[in-house]
Amino acid sequence: MKNYRITVNGTAYDVAVEELAAGAAPAPVAQVAAPVAAPAPAAAPAPAAKSTGAGSIKVASPMPGKILDVKTKVGDAVKKGQVLLILEAMKMENEVVAPEDGTVASVDVAVGAMVEAGDTLASLN
Fold first, then answer.
1. Fewer CB atoms inside 10 Å of the end CB: C or N, the chain?
2. pLDDT(95) > 90
Protein backbone atom coordinates (compact mmCIF):
# COMPACT_ATOMS: atom_id res chain seq x y z
CA MET A 1 0.00 0.00 0.00
CA LYS A 2 1.42 3.38 -0.98
CA ASN A 3 0.16 6.72 0.28
CA TYR A 4 0.03 9.79 -1.96
CA ARG A 5 -1.15 13.38 -1.59
CA ILE A 6 -3.00 14.66 -4.65
CA THR A 7 -4.00 18.31 -5.09
CA VAL A 8 -7.05 19.08 -7.20
CA ASN A 9 -8.05 22.71 -7.72
CA GLY A 10 -6.06 23.76 -4.67
CA THR A 11 -7.54 21.12 -2.34
CA ALA A 12 -5.18 18.39 -1.08
CA TYR A 13 -6.42 14.79 -0.76
CA ASP A 14 -4.53 11.93 0.87
CA VAL A 15 -5.07 8.62 -0.94
CA ALA A 16 -3.84 5.04 -0.46
CA VAL A 17 -3.07 2.94 -3.55
CA GLU A 18 -2.65 -0.84 -3.47
CA GLU A 19 -0.45 -2.51 -6.06
CA LEU A 20 -1.78 -5.87 -7.34
CA ALA A 21 0.35 -8.78 -8.48
CA ALA A 22 0.20 -9.55 -12.21
CA GLY A 23 -2.95 -11.52 -13.02
CA ALA A 24 -4.45 -11.07 -9.57
CA ALA A 25 -8.10 -10.10 -9.47
CA PRO A 26 -8.88 -7.02 -7.43
CA ALA A 27 -10.73 -7.65 -4.19
CA PRO A 28 -14.27 -6.29 -4.09
CA VAL A 29 -14.43 -2.89 -2.46
CA ALA A 30 -17.49 -1.64 -0.64
CA GLN A 31 -18.73 1.52 -2.29
CA VAL A 32 -19.49 4.22 0.25
CA ALA A 33 -20.83 7.51 -0.98
CA ALA A 34 -19.10 10.06 1.19
CA PRO A 35 -20.28 13.63 0.93
CA VAL A 36 -17.57 15.83 -0.47
CA ALA A 37 -17.83 19.56 -0.16
CA ALA A 38 -16.97 21.32 -3.38
CA PRO A 39 -13.95 23.55 -2.92
CA ALA A 40 -14.79 27.22 -2.78
CA PRO A 41 -13.61 28.98 -5.91
CA ALA A 42 -10.45 30.91 -5.17
CA ALA A 43 -9.62 34.21 -6.77
CA ALA A 44 -6.75 32.82 -8.88
CA PRO A 45 -4.27 32.07 -6.09
CA ALA A 46 -0.70 33.02 -6.85
CA PRO A 47 1.87 30.23 -6.91
CA ALA A 48 3.07 30.06 -3.32
CA ALA A 49 6.58 28.79 -3.92
CA LYS A 50 7.56 31.62 -6.26
CA SER A 51 8.57 34.94 -4.83
CA THR A 52 8.57 38.19 -6.69
CA GLY A 53 11.79 39.00 -4.87
CA ALA A 54 10.59 42.54 -4.27
CA GLY A 55 11.72 42.77 -0.65
CA SER A 56 14.89 41.91 1.22
CA ILE A 57 13.08 40.34 4.22
CA LYS A 58 11.24 37.14 3.30
CA VAL A 59 8.26 35.94 5.35
CA ALA A 60 8.09 32.15 4.99
CA SER A 61 5.26 29.77 5.83
CA PRO A 62 5.97 28.03 9.14
CA MET A 63 3.90 24.99 8.14
CA PRO A 64 1.79 23.62 5.28
CA GLY A 65 -1.74 24.97 5.09
CA LYS A 66 -4.26 27.20 3.34
CA ILE A 67 -4.27 30.99 3.25
CA LEU A 68 -7.55 32.18 4.82
CA ASP A 69 -6.96 35.92 4.85
CA VAL A 70 -4.40 38.50 3.74
CA LYS A 71 -4.36 41.39 6.21
CA THR A 72 -1.89 43.68 4.39
CA LYS A 73 -1.19 44.95 0.91
CA VAL A 74 1.91 46.15 -0.93
CA GLY A 75 3.05 49.50 0.41
CA ASP A 76 1.63 49.07 3.94
CA ALA A 77 3.97 50.00 6.79
CA VAL A 78 4.06 47.19 9.37
CA LYS A 79 5.52 46.82 12.87
CA LYS A 80 7.28 43.75 14.27
CA GLY A 81 4.61 41.25 15.37
CA GLN A 82 1.82 42.75 13.24
CA VAL A 83 -0.40 40.13 11.56
CA LEU A 84 0.26 39.84 7.81
CA LEU A 85 -1.74 36.71 6.94
CA ILE A 86 -3.97 34.04 8.47
CA LEU A 87 -2.85 30.47 7.69
CA GLU A 88 -5.15 27.52 8.39
CA ALA A 89 -3.31 24.35 9.35
CA MET A 90 -4.85 21.30 11.04
CA LYS A 91 -8.18 23.14 11.46
CA MET A 92 -6.49 25.93 13.41
CA GLU A 93 -6.06 29.53 12.33
CA ASN A 94 -2.45 30.68 12.70
CA GLU A 95 -1.32 34.29 12.48
CA VAL A 96 1.74 34.90 10.32
CA VAL A 97 3.37 38.05 11.67
CA ALA A 98 5.99 40.53 10.49
CA PRO A 99 9.44 39.47 11.73
CA GLU A 100 10.51 43.14 12.02
CA ASP A 101 9.39 46.68 11.20
CA GLY A 102 9.22 47.50 7.51
CA THR A 103 7.11 48.13 4.43
CA VAL A 104 5.30 45.33 2.58
CA ALA A 105 7.18 44.91 -0.71
CA SER A 106 5.21 41.94 -2.03
CA VAL A 107 2.39 39.60 -1.10
CA ASP A 108 3.16 36.33 -2.87
CA VAL A 109 -0.04 34.41 -2.06
CA ALA A 110 -3.78 34.93 -2.37
CA VAL A 111 -6.72 33.83 -0.27
CA GLY A 112 -7.35 30.13 -0.90
CA ALA A 113 -3.76 29.29 -1.87
CA MET A 114 -2.28 26.06 -0.50
CA VAL A 115 1.27 26.53 0.79
CA GLU A 116 4.02 24.27 2.04
CA ALA A 117 6.41 24.92 4.92
CA GLY A 118 9.13 27.31 3.79
CA ASP A 119 7.16 28.85 0.89
CA THR A 120 7.55 32.62 0.67
CA LEU A 121 4.27 34.28 1.65
CA ALA A 122 5.35 37.93 1.53
CA SER A 123 8.42 40.13 1.64
CA LEU A 124 9.28 43.34 3.44
CA ASN A 125 11.76 46.15 2.89
1. N
2. yes
